[in-house]
């Protein structure tokens, strides 16, 4: 189906190696379908006891979806992007309930779709090189791939901070926020990759958890992000007297106003959900609606096509984004629902 992901069994280990190193292993639709086919087969194969996910190239597991392809398809109506989102989110759900141990090595850059393939697994490993993020508001999108489920359950308001600013997590932050389970110094990955029992190898290579800067900043984060609106969050950040909070306010105001308001609403709703499936269904509605708005195409243009880093959002301000526009992102899709 594709040569961009290597799938094979080695003894009793089913190995998934994302293999687009020049593109930081960003995901194509073909890669998703190939991984799904392998996981479906291994789930019922008694000779496969455990699945191990890693990335080729040494720079990261996966930088997310191939957003240039999403940009091009969205300009043509978005049918291909909707199909991509559907298969991606269904794969995320499968990983979350996989019947065998699923070990994900989140070494290096792990963002967006890479989080979806790893952070719902049963054993999630980070290293000192891990940089983990849900950066969707940078491109006019909203955290997806089950990311809003994880962010909504992070301690206090740390998930809201990460979602609105698109900030990256260190290994310590990812462990603190529930995106990872165990810390392994990067030299310890080679024995894990070579092992016939990756689960045991991970635990044997584990080291004490590094500190989390986010945990140390809970005071101002929880106080500022508990507000009911993005506008009030920004005001609290600016008035807090904390330099990091003021910087966060500026980071937020650079993002798509529509994406920011929808993101906050999505996380607040996700807190009330009782399952990942419910949140994935919501994310599918939100992402499909985002394809009909100008900010997604404009955000990707500014970040990866023209690379001018100067998106012209529409609407351009938070005040112009109405409650009715936000509500539109959560409207049922009828026969097109994801239906996890």
UniProtKB/TrEMBL annotation:
InterPro entries xref list: ClpP/crotonase-like_dom_sf (IPR029045), ECH_dom (IPR045004), HIBYL-CoA-H (IPR032259)
Catalysed reactions listed for this entry: 3-hydroxy-2-methylpropanoyl-CoA + H2O = 3-hydroxy-2-methylpropanoate + CoA + H(+)
Origin: domain of life: Bacteria
Coiled coil regions in record: none
Enzyme Commission code: 3.1.2.4
PANTHER family listed in its UniProt record: 3-HYDROXYISOBUTYRYL-COA HYDROLASE, MITOCHONDRIAL, 3-HYDROXYISOBUTYRYL-COA HYDROLASE-RELATED
The protein's name: 3-hydroxyisobutyryl-CoA hydrolase
């Amino acid at each position: 189906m594709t040569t961009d992901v290597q799938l094979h069994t080695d003894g009793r280990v089913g190995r998934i190696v994302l293999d687009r190193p020049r593109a930081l292993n960003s995901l194509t639709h073909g890669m998703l379908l190939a991984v799904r086919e392998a996981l479906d087969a291994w789930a019922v194969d008694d000779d496969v006891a455990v699945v191990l996910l890693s990335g080729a190239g040494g720079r990261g597991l996966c930088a997310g979806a191939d957003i240039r392809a999403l940009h091009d398809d969205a300009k043509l109506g978005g049918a291909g992007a909707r199909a991509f989102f559907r298969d991606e989110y269904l794969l995320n759900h499968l990983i979350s309930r996989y019947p065998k141990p699923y070990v994900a090595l989140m070494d290096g850059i792990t963002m967006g779709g890479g989080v979806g393939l790893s952070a719902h697994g049963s054993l999630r490993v980070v290293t000192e090189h891990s940089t983990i993020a849900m950066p969707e508001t940078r491109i006019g999108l909203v955290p997806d791939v089950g990311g809003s489920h994880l962010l909504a359950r992070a301690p206090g308001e740390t998930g809201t901070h990460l979602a609105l600013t698109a900030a990256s997590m260190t290994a310590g932050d990812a462990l603190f926020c529930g995106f990872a389970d165990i810390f392994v110094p990067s030299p310890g990955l080679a024995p894990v990759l070579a092992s016939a029992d990756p689960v045991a190898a991970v635990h044997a290579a584990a080291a004490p958890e590094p500190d989390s800067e986010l945990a140390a900043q809970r005071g101002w984060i929880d106080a500022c992000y508990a507000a009911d609106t993005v506008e009030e969050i920004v005001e609290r950040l600016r008035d807090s007297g904390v330099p990091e909070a003021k910087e966060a306010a500026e980071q937020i105001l650079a993002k798509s106003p529509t994406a920011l308001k929808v993101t906050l609403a999505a996380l607040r709703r996700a807190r009330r959900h009782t399952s990942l499936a419910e949140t994935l269904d919501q994310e599918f509605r939100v992402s499909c609606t985002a394809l009909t708005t100008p900010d997604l195409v404009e955000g990707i243009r500014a970040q990866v096509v023209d690379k001018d880093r100067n998106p012209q959002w529409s609407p351009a301000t938070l005040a112009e984004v109405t409650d009715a526009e936000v509500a539109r992102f959560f409207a049922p899709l009828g026969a097109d629902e994801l239906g996890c």
